[in-house]
Amino acid sequence: MWFEFALIGMAAGYLAGFLGVGGGLVMVPAMTFLFLHDTASSGVTADVAIHTAIATSLATMLVTSVSSLSAHHRKGAVQWPLVRMMTPGLVVGGVLGAILASRLSGEMLQKVFAIFSVLAGLQLMLARQPTGHKPMSGPRTTSIVSVAIGAISSLVGIGGGSLTVPWLLWHRVRAQVAVGTSAACGFPIAVAGAMSYVFLGRMTGETTSITGYVHLPAFLGIAITSALVAPLGVATVHRLRPELVRRVFGAFMFAVGLKMLFD
Question: Which domain does 64 fall in, by range?
Fold first, then answer.
């Protein structure tokens, strides 16, 4: 399965850097499919396949987000004061999202991800952003929004870009800076979410691995290739307009979400 993990990592890394939507939208359905259709090789049982995919997705973002945010930082596209303001809420939300996911059945969690995938796909296809613009919110509102972003992201295994980027654009942040800042915000989500899934997986006894819900071979295969490819996506977003790619990817996510919802 190493070849499949490498391909998933390349696609996720590029899209994470280029679109700022987080590679989890690719990694979670792809890994879930692999785990469900090859339980013997993966060692993952069907009832925790999507839990393992989400946890592993967040773990790989520990590597991908560092690679992506570093590339954005070199281009001056990260608002670090805003990242520092959002980090506590993102961490709290990341832990809460993992706890909620661990309490849901595999079937229910798959439906949650599917609904999110459909909505994210529609947002990308329609290129809809919040109407109007407003100045950046104060610390209290920003903290509340950060908790919500962290919780949803950890629940479905994404870096939060599909939530953070529109919110930043609504607050008059330039598109490239919104993507770069979103990439930086993905790191605390990944830390809190991945560590929570490791702990919860071991505590619930769903896996005997020391890495809990995180699938170590998938993590290694995806993390290495995604980290190598993420800077290519960053370079592209600073040269081209990504609207066409957003719409194509949105259609893909919409179709994946529908399949997961009714499969």
Answer: 2-262
The structural domain count of the chain equals 1
- Do residues 72 and 186 lie in contact, with contact meaning Cβ atoms separated by under 8 Å? no
pLDDT in tens, 24-72: 888 999 999 999 888 777 888 888 999 999 999 999 988 877 877 887 8
Q: Is the pLDDT of residue 127 over 80?
A: no
* pLDDT tens for each residue of 152-163: 999 999 888 778
Beta carbons within 8 Å of 35's beta carbon, 6+ residues apart: 42, 44, 46, 49, 52, 53, 215
pTM for the complete prediction? 0.85
| DSSP sequence for the chain | -HHHHHHHHHHHHHHHHHHSS-THHHHHHHHHHHHHH-HHHH---GGGHHHHHHHHHHHHHHHHHHHHHHHHHHTT---HHHHHHHHHHHHHHHHHHHHHHHTS-HHHHHHHHHHHHHHHHHHHHHT---SS--PPP-HHHHHHHHHHHHHHHHHHT--SHHHHHHHHHHTT--HHHHHHHHHHHHHHHHHHHHHHHHHHHHHHTS--STTTT--HHHHHHHHHHHHHHHHHHHHHHTTS--HHHHHHHHHHHHHHHHHHHH-
**CA–CA separation, 183 and 165 (whole Å):** 9
